[in-house]
Amino acid sequence: MRFASRTMLPLLAASTMFAQAYRFGHVWDGEKMLTNAVIVVEKDRIKSVGPAGGDAIDMARYTALPGLIDVHTHMTYVWDMARISQAGRGAATVYLAQDNAKKTLETGVTTVRNLGASDYTDIAMRDLINQGLMAGPRMYVSGYGLQITRGGRGGPQTADGVAEVMKVVRQQIAAGADVVKMYGSTGSGQDVTGFQTFTYEEMKAAVDVAHAMGKTIAIHTYGPTGARDAVRAGADSIEHAIDMDDDTIAEMVRKKIFYVPTIDHNRYYVDNAKMLRYPPTAIGPLNDFIARNLETAKKAFRAGVRIAMGSDAVYTMFGENTRELAWFVKAGMTPEQALKTATVNAAELLHHADTLGSLKPGYFADICAVEGNPLENIDVVIHNVRWVMKAGTVVVDKTRP
Fold it and tell me: DSSP states of 280-316 as a string?
């Protein structure tokens, strides 16, 4: 396996200055499956997708998919920062997060939406990747996530009342955020309480400012009341929520609000409870949340809510980004419907459906090659990624010894 290292980047960039053709056994372009098709890449874009013919690099044993999109990550959450002094943590975090970025690319994920980071480390990471100084997925980032003041502690992300919410949203956008993140309830890690924090009026203020400034907003809420008010306020996506009532779900359908269930992140917490130093008493509530999360996803999917794949990957979870797709199949989706949550749906949530999430002329040359038929078995996408291209550059290659 090889990643595009810093020293390799100029050479790789030079190799994309001319058109290159790749022949795949199958190509799923986001809408339909093509057989024995050739994708022609020119610079960082797809030039054409069509019948095989002429010289092409032989990838016939693989099925090509659009580069996958993970719409809820925390790329700068690295495990065990205890040995790093507080003063140096920002720079150390970005350096150590390179491993998270590389493991994410291994899963076929070429684009992420990062929802929450301290010290604007996600903005720095995004910029380094965009400049070719770090290997990693394309990042759309939020900077700090808005929180209420708790325990007497404030900071650049805290806001209490409508006026402060409006101010902090503007500050995050001014700092370089692509998307606004708001913590509308408690709930994180072993805490699955879901008590609403921000009021409807505060959520509405955040939504209005974000939209007025041309940005989308994601509202974190574990519980149903926060979800109800986030939907009423017009958020672009609701993250995590369980036990949403019929009226809230119907309003999500009407307003075309996305649901990002992040079911698998609590599975990760259960599997890694010892490493995370969770007490044994945390396992029961986490498993209960998983079950209710899955049932809410089933209910939302049956009602017609648009769903996008978000892993909520933190710490050592990178490399497991796409396991969420298996939960979507358990929720009643076909493998193709699940795959769309990480491609066309996710691209629409990002407001980049014209350049990401599909294999079509003019789109970014983001290609994920897998062994097997992903429309028959979603595990093919989760476990059998063999080759990944991002913007015309091969960033993962497991096709050769």
Answer: GGGHHHHHHHHHHHHHHHHHHHHHT-EE-----B-TT
pLDDT of residue 153: 65
Residues recorded for the chain: 401
- What is the reported pLDDT for 10? 40
Q: How far apart are CA 234 and CA 252, in angstroms?
A: 9
CATH topology of domain 143-176+178-307: TIM Barrel (3.20.20)
Q: What is the CATH number of domain 9-67+358-397?
A: 2.30.40.10
Domain ranges of the chain: 9-67+358-397, 143-176+178-307
Under-70 pLDDT residues of the chain: 1-17, 82-83, 85, 87, 151-154
Nearest to 400 by CA among 62, 105, 7, 11: 62
- Show contacts of 168-175: CB within 8 Å, 24+ apart: 169/205, 169/206, 169/209, 169/210, 169/213, 170/209, 170/213, 172/142, 172/143, 172/144, 172/146, 173/210, 173/213, 173/215, 175/120, 175/123, 175/143
pLDDT of amino acid 13: 41
> What pLDDT does 40 receive?
97
Q: What is the pTM of this model?
A: 0.94
